[in-house]
Specification:
This protein has 721 residues and is an alpha+beta fold. The protein contains 25 helices and 18 strands. Strands 1, 2, 3, 6, 7, 8 and 9 form a seven-stranded mixed beta sheet that branches. Helix 10 packs across helix 11, helix 15 packs across helix 17 and helix 22 packs antiparallel against helix 23. It is globular.
Amino acid sequence: PIVGVSTRREMLSRFARGSRAPASALARRAAPALTQRRNFIAGSEEYGKHCFKGAVADAYLAKHGLPAGLLDDPSWTTTSADKVAAAVMDWAHDNGASVMTHWFQPMASLGVRHGQTGQVHNAMFTFDKDGKVEWELEGKALLKGETDGSSYPSGGMRATHTAGGYTVIDPTSPIFLRGDTVFVPTIFVSFYGDALDEKTPLMRAQKAVSTQATRLLKLLGYGVDKVGPNIGLEQEFFLVPRKDYYRRPDLQLTGRTIMGKNAPRGQEMCDHYMAAINPVALECMQEIQHECFMLGIPLRTRHREVAPNQYEFAPFFGTAVTQIDQNLMVMQICDEVAARHGLACLPQEKPFKDINGSGKHNNISLGTNTGVNLLNPAQLAKASGSHEIFPVLMAGIVRAIDLHGDLMRMAIASPGNDFRLGACEAPPAIISTYLGETMTAYLDEFRKSKAGKEYAPAVKTVDLGLDEIAPFTMPAEDRNRTSPFPYGGHRFEFRAVGSSQNVSLVNTVLCTIWADSFGHLADQIEAGGKPAEVAAAALDQHWKVIFNGNNYDEANQEALTKAGVWRIDSGVDSLQRLSDPKNVDLFSRHGVLNEKECKARTAVLLDHYSGTVEMEALCMVDMIKQHVIPAVVNAEVEGPHLSGLQAAAAKVEAGLSKMHGAADEYSKATAARELRLETMEAARDVCDKAEGDVPEDLWTLATYKELLFLDSHQGADAISD
C-alpha cells in the first residue's frame, strides 16, 4: 500500500523517538555500576595500596633482604633487579595480579589512543620440569622489553625492515597495579637509541636543567646536588550522558562536535562554575578518586567548571615525570569509570562550540633535592642566605620566555587548541608572562640598582565592617587569567596547555629553555661578569616579554606583536618551529633531541594534526549524508536547505582531496587547517541552520540540549541504589 505523507511522518517520528532511550531505562541499565558507591576515601591506610613505593614496597623488599628506601636510588636496577622483581611479584599476587606490562608513551597519541600509552601484557609464570606452572618474574623482564617500533608514529626513524623498539624501566616513576595487571613505567627508544616516546626527551631535559641550574647556583654561592621540576596539573573535562554520546558519531570518533545548534541556555548566567556537583557526575567522580587514591594519585580537588557539564580534578604537586604518568592514568580512569556510570568523559579541548573549552593548566616550579623551592624567594633566601639568587633565576626565566616563546607555542599546539586559544577562556597565542606589579617593580629595581634585596610581597587587609567576620589579609596582587604564563607566587602556570595533551613535551620545552638561560648566565659569570650585572643585562634585553595587562584586548595584542613578542596564530606554523635551526641547535646542545629526532617529531606532530582533521571531515560528510539530509527530507523542509547541504558536503570532500594531494607533511597540515577552520566551519553553519528547522522528533543526532545539561536530564532512578 502507498503510505501517505502524514502517516510516513508519524512512522518516522515514532522511529526517531524509539531510538532515544528514556532516562529511566538508562538508569536501570547503569544501576549495577552505581551500586558500587565507592567513596573517595574509605580509609587512609588504603592510600597507595596499589602503588609499589614507600612503606608498601619496603615491606615486600624486606622479605627478600633488601633495605627500606632502596627504590629511591635508581642504581637498584644494576644491583638488585632480581630481588626487586621477586618482591614485586609477591606484592602483585597478594593483590590479585598475575600479569605484568611495560607501560610507555608513544609520540602524538593524544585524542586517538585509549589511555595514550603502549602496553603488552605478559603473565608472570613459567613451567617446571614436570610441566607445572610456577609463578616467576625475572629481573631482566622487569627492566627491559622489546617490541615493534615501526607500528608506532616515528617520523621515519623506524620502518618495517628496521623495526626494533625497546622499553627500559623508568625507576623514577613508581610501579603500580590495576586489576590483574602490574604496570611498569618505561621509556621507549629505537635500536639506535632515538626517542620514540614522550618521556625520554623529558628525562633528558630534566637532566639538562639540573646540570645548568646547579652550576649557576654554585657560582652564586649556593651548592645543591640536584634540581628538578615539580608540577601540578589541573585536568578539565566534560561528562555527558552516554546514551546521547552514542548518537554523536563525531564525539565518538573525534572527541568534539563538528556540528550542533546551540541550546537556548549556555553560560549566560555564569551559573555553572563551582556550583553543586550533579549527583550522577559526583558518584562517577567519587569512584575515579577512589581508584586514583588506591594508586597513590593524590587527586585533592574536584569541582564544576565554567561550562555546563564541565568538571575539574587537581592533584597535589609532584615530580614532573611521576605527575605526567599519573595524569595519563587519571584520563584513562575517567574514561573507563564514566562508562560504568552511564556517562562519557570528553577530555578534548573544545568539544562544544560557543561554550568554554577545557585546559590542563601546567603549574611548575623548580626544587632542589633538599626540598627548597627555587621560585619561592623567602624559602630560597633562608636556605641560601642570599637575596641575590632569586632575581638572577627570574632573569634567566624571563630571557627563556622571550627567546623561545616559539617553542612554548609549539608545545601547546594540540589540534583542539585551534578553537580555544584567543577566546575569552584561554590566553591567546602570544607568549608573554605576567609577574604582577609587585614582582615587576622588584625586578625593575634590581635591574636598575644591580643589588639584590629581600622580596616582600605586598598584602592588604580587608575589613568588611561585620562584627561576625574578622578583618583578613589577602595578596595585593590580583589574578591575571589572560596571561599564557603567569607567575603565581612560588610557581609559574602555563595556562594555555590543552586538556587532552600529554604534557611531556610542554615540560621538555620548559626545562630545556630554562637550562639554556641558566647556562648562558653561568657562562657570563664564569667569564668574569658580576652576577647582578649579568642578570640585570638579561632583564634589560628581554623586558618586553613581561606584560601585566589584559591579553584579550586587541590593542594590547597588537602592541605586544609590534614589540616583538612571539606570536604564532597558526598551530601548524608553530609545529614547524620544532625543527627550525635555532631550536635544533638548542635541543642538540643540551642533549635533549638531536636533529633527526627534531625533524621526525615535527613530522609526527604534523601528521597527527592532519589525521585529526581528516577524521573530523569524514565524520562531517557522513553525518551530512546519513543524518542531516535525511532529516531535512523527512521533515519536508528540503527547499531552504537541501542544495546547501549537498554543496557543503562536496566542498568538504574537495578539501580532503586537496589534503591528499599535498606534497609534504607541512603542506598537508596547512591544507587541513584551512579545511577545518574555513570550509568545515562554513558547512557547520549550514547544518546548524537545518537543525533549527527540523522537528525534534525527526532529528537523529543528539542535540546540545541533550548533551550538556545533566542537571535537568537525569531522574531520581539514575542515582538510586
